[in-house]
Amino acid sequence: CLRQWDRNLPLAMAGAQCLQTVTEDNAEVLQQISADSLKLLEGLLMGEGGESADNTLLRTTVAGCIFNLKSLLRAGSQSEALQAVVRVLARTLEHNVATAMTRLAGMLGTQQINNNGAAGQMNGETDGHGRPLTPELQQLPQETRALQDEVMTLLSAQQAALEIVANMCLPDDDSDEEWEDMDSSDTSDEVTMCDVTEEGGAPLMTPLCLSAETHTALISHNLPKKVLERTVVPEACDSLALSTHGQPVLKRLLTVQRRALLCLRNMLAVLDGEGMDTAGLVEVGNHLMALFGASGDQEFQEAVTGAIRSLLQRMAAVQVTQPLSREQLCVLCDLGRQSPCPSVRANVVNAAGSMGSVLAKQPESVEKLTLIGTFLTEVCSKDTVLWVVAEALDAIFDVFGDGQQVDTVAASIGLVAKLRQISPVFKSRVHKERRSLGEHFPVVDNARVNLNRFIRYKEGC
């Protein structure tokens, strides 16, 4: 199928998508891939083939195939293949879909006016009652349909590119010669620290265990900035929402934004360098906080709070002294109180805990620490999901462990007294729900064990 790319692009596209799917984390299929197949893929990746939306999607999908098959490449060509893959992904993410969406919104608006006029004429021929548009009137002109297809294809290409980059931003478990794949919906935030060094003492890995080769490729092509740009809400969205033909585009755009936020979350955990210094992290934080009102979609909110959680963990690691303003912190905590999604609430709890850990070491942080302590104790006493309560307890243990400033805040909000009230209720819930906790049981049980210890410790201070 792939050999037909220049004569039958849809067939080649179907073949590439199938190959990407079956080669993902599938050792048996990898054994069936021939050297000729690898050469064909490399040729498609590095060839020109034009910059149309369809060619962009094909090259991006082929990049995903090579991502899955990198372990089969000769050691001498892996670096070149990695650079080529990242270059293609960067070009895909550079496409200015917002401009095309604006043009599409204008065309759809014109079409809507024409449809309304035609419908008015139809109504005038009857007794005045409105009638639904005929299928002919609902159909789009060919030029508008072509632009809509182009936008949808480019968004699909960007979604695929973001999923590949998200997988790249994972630590190598075995060696710097292998890429470790993962499903794009995985929610793990754990990153293992590495201290592997060469004889001269130079680290083989970055501090957070991403291979230096991958790290360099991503930074040199400015992927962090390109990924962040894909989370921006285009101005044309409001206009597209008014058209039934624009709504599928908005749905695809929302998926791209969620993938970009997941990708950003992974990047924040492993990348450093340009854009990842204190000023850059604060700028990212301001942008993410502004996205809260962009969509009420639950998965979108989970993606945004997941990225903020990763951001604040990174800020804590590099000791950014003022991660969020008081107003931003209030907005974050309000979302943690109001969201119906346990994962969103847990993300907010962990983000608040990370911020509190930094503020605990900063002078004159009583006001923000009070907000954080009040929020966390509210979660502990009111949240209906036990493992979210456990996450909040762990955050309290981390933030209010030691220090005169945190002791002052703890006393002012009556932290110990509230925890004493929470303790018997929490333990009773653990006893009743332990069989249904599944993967959350270790977190819940750890909080159960540490709760009384923390209370006794703070009472003895």
Q: Give the CA-based shape.
A: globular
The count of helical stretches stands at: 21
* DSSP strand tally: 0
Strand residue content: under 5%
Q: Summarize the helix and strand pattern as letters.
A: HHHHHHHHHHHHHHHHHHHHH
Compute the average pLDDT.
82
Question: Over all CA atoms, what is the radius of gyration?
Answer: 26 Å
Largest sheet descriptor: none
Structural class: mainly alpha
Q: What's the helical proportion of residues?
A: 55-70%
What features would you describe in this structure?
This protein has about 450 residues and is an all-alpha fold. It has 21 helices and no strands. The protein has helices spanning about 10-20, 25-30, 35-45, 55-70, 75-95, 95-125, 135-140, 140-170, 210-220, 225-230, 235-240, 245-270, 280-290, 300-315, 325-340, 340-360, 365-380, 385-400, 405-410, 415-435, 440-460. Helix 5 (about 75-95) crosses helix 8 (about 140-170). The chain starts with 8 loop residues before the first helix and ends with a helix. The model is unreliable at about 115-135 and about 175-210 (pLDDT under 50).
Kindly summarize this structure in a few lines.
With 461 residues, the chain is mainly α. Helix content is 68%, strand content 0%. Residues 117-137 and 173-208 have low confidence and may be disordered.
